[in-house]
Amino acid sequence: MGDILAHESELLGLVKEYLDFAEFEDTLKTFSKECKIKGKPLCKTVGGSFRDSKSLTIQKDLVAAFDNGDQKVFFDLWEEHISSSIRDGDSFAQKLEFYLHIHFAIYLLKYSVGRPDKEELDEKISYFKTYLETKGAALSQTTEFLPFYALPFVPNPMVHPSFKELFQDSWTPELKLKLIKFLALISKASNTPKLLTIYENGQSNKEILQQLHQQLVEAERRSVTYLKRYNKIQADYHNLIGVTAELVDSLEATVSGKMITPEYLQSVCVRLFSNQMRQSLAHSVDFTRPGTASTMLRASLAPVKLKDVPLLPSLDYEKLKKDLILGSDRLKAFLLQALRWRLTTSHPGEQRETVLQAYISNDLLDCYSHNQRSVLQLLHSTSDVVRQYMARLINAFASLAEGRLYLAQNTKVLQMLEGRLKEEDKDIITRENVLGALQKFSLRRPLQTAMIQDGLIFWLVDVLKDPDCLSDYTLEYSVALLMNLCLRSTGKNMCAKVAGLVLKVLSDLLGHENHEIQPYVNGALYSILSVPSIREEARAMGMEDILRCFIKEGNAEMIRQIEFIIKQLNSEELPDGVLESDDDEDEDDEEDHDIMEADLDKDELIQPQLGELSGEKLLTTEYLGIMTNTGKTRRKGLANVQWSGDEPLQRPVTPGGHRNGYPV
C-alpha cells in the first residue's frame, strides 16, 4: 500500500495525460476536480497543446529551410530536434536524409536565375562530399544510392543520364511531401501518452513470452533426443575403453609367452557388435582361422552401413488418410506434423527411403486419386495450422528426388501450390514452405516449363522489388527460383517482355546485405544477358558501371562472376550452347539431389496437452500397421556435377543443396 501511495501522484498524472490526449474534456474536468476535492496531488506533465505548438514551429522552420535551400539552418534543426536513435537507426530516416543532402547539393543548379555562383556551389558540393565520406558511407552498399556517390565528381550533373531524375520538376515536390509526412509521424510519436506506451510494451512483451515459451518447448524436445544419443555414445565409449584395456592386457600376456584362446578373441569381437548380431556371430564365425579377429575388428570400427539402421514400424495408411480427411483440425495438424517428422528426422539413406517409399506406395497425399475429397485439399483448409502443416509436408516431399517425382504425377499439385503462393497473406511460414516446394520443383524441366507458362516469373519479379520486406528464406528461395526459370530460353523470353524491371530488380539485389543470394542473382543476370534485347536495355541503363562498383567491394569469387557477367553484357552474339533446343522436355538437366533443410521443422505452431499423443507415438499407438520393407534402389542423379564458383550458376539448384554441396 505504501508503494501505491508513493507513486499515486505519478499514476494520476498518467491518467490525466491520457484523458487530455484522447480529448475526454468533460471527463478530464471532473477527474481534476475530484482529485482536488480529495486532496490528491497530480504530477505535472507537459501539456499536449504546448508540445503541439512547439512541434509545429519546428516543422515550419525545417520546411522553410528546405524551400530556401538553406542547408546549414536545415541540418542544425534536423540534428537538434530529430533524435539520433531515429536518424541512425531508422532506415527510412537514413534514406530521407541522403536525398535531402542531394537536394541541397543541386539546389543552385536547379533554382538559380542564370549561372549559379561558383563559390557557393562548390561549398554545397563539398558539404555533400563530406557527408558521403562520413555518415553517408553507411549506404554505399545500397544499389539505390550507388550512382549518387559519383555526383560530386561529375562536371555537369544536369546532362548526365544517371541524374536525369533529380532535375525533373516532380522530384523536389515529392521529396518535400516525404519530409512533411516524416515530420508529422515523428511529432505524433513524441506526443504519445506514457500510459499508452506502457500498454503497447506490455502487449509486445506478452507476444515475446509466447514465442520464448514455444522455443523452450522445442528446445526441451530436442534436448531429450540429444540426451538419448549422448547416453548411447557414452555407453559405447565405456564399452570400447573396456575392450581396449583387455586388448592391451592381452598384448602384455603374449609378450610374456602366454597364449590367447580363440574363445577369448570371440568374446572381445562380439562385444564390439550390436546386440542383434551377437548370436549369429557366436555360431557362424571361425575364430581359429588366422586374421579373422583383426578383420572383424576393422569392420566393427568402420562407419555403420545404412542397411544396419533399424526400419520404422509400418502404418495403417487407410485409417490414417481417412482421419486426415474427416478428422478434427487439431487431429489433422498433429498427424501432418507426425508424418513430416517421420520423414525429416529419419536417418538419411535406407531408413528415409523406406519411409518415403511407404508414403508413395500408399499414395499418402492422394496424388494418384481423382476423388473430390483428398489429402491434397488440406492445402486449402480454412484452418491456418492445417494449411501450414500441409505446406510443410509437401515441402518435405519436394526436398527428396523421389518425392518430387511423386508430386509431379498430379498436375493439380503445381496449380494448387501456385494458387496458394499468390493467395496466402496471413501466414508467412505457409508461404515460405509453398515457395520452397515450388523452388525444388524447378529442378525438374517439365515443371519449369509449366511455371514459366503460368507467369510465375512476373510474380517473382514483383515480390523482389521490395526485398527488405521478405524473410531470409523467402528472399533466398525466390531469387533461386527466378534464376532456375531464367536458365530456360522461354524464361529468358518472358524476362525480355519486362527487361527494364527485371534488370532493375536484379541490380538492386546485387547490393543486398544477404550474401547467400549473390550466386543466384549473378546466375540470373548472366543467363538473361544472352538475349540481345535485354543486353541493349542493360547497356542503356549503365549496367556495366553498376557491376564495376561491386567489383571494388566484392570478394574474389564474386569478382570473377561479375567479370563473366560484364563479358556477357558486352558480347554481340548468342554464346555457344544457348539454343532454342534447351527447352526440350528432357530430364537430363535435372539436379536430383536430396535437400532436407532444418527450416522444415522450425517454429512449430501446436504442442500436445497433458496426455495428448503426438509425433511418432501418435502414429505407432493409433495407426500401427504390418511391417513391410518397401525400399528400392535410388534413381541416380547428377551428384557428380560440380560448380567451380568462378562462373555464374548455369544449372538449376536449390539453396539448401547449393550451400551444403548437395548432400544425400
TrEMBL record:
Q: Is Cytoplasm a UniProt keyword of this protein?
A: yes
Q: Where is this region: Disordered?
A: 639-664
* InterPro entries listed in its UniProt record: ARM-like (IPR011989), ARM-type_fold (IPR016024), ARMC9 (IPR040369), ARMC9_ARM_dom (IPR048959), ARMC9_CTLH-like_dom (IPR056327), ARMC9_LisH (IPR048957), LisH (IPR006594)
| One Pfam family cited in the UniProt record for this chain | ARMC9_LisH
Q: Which PROSITE patterns match?
A: LISH
Chain ranges of the LisH domain: 451-570
An example of a Gene Ontology BP annotation on this entry?
cilium assembly
Keywords tagged on the record: Cell projection, Cilium biogenesis/degradation, Cytoplasm, Cytoskeleton
UniProt domain ARMC9 CTLH-like: residue ranges: 57-187
Where found in the cell?
Cytoplasm, Cytoskeleton, Cilium basal body; Cytoplasm, Cytoskeleton, Microtubule organizing center, Centrosome, Centriole
Q: Which GO terms describe its cellular component?
A: centriole; ciliary basal body
Binding partners and assembly: Interacts with TOGARAM1, CCDC66, CEP104, CSPP1 and CEP290. Interacts with NDUFAF2.
Biological function: Involved in ciliogenesis. It is required for appropriate acetylation and polyglutamylation of ciliary microtubules, and regulation of cilium length. Acts as a positive regulator of hedgehog (Hh)signaling. May participate in the trafficking and/or retention of GLI2 and GLI3 proteins at the ciliary tip.
User: What is the protein name for this chain?
Assistant: LisH domain-containing protein ARMC9
Q: Which organism is it from?
A: Homo sapiens (Human)
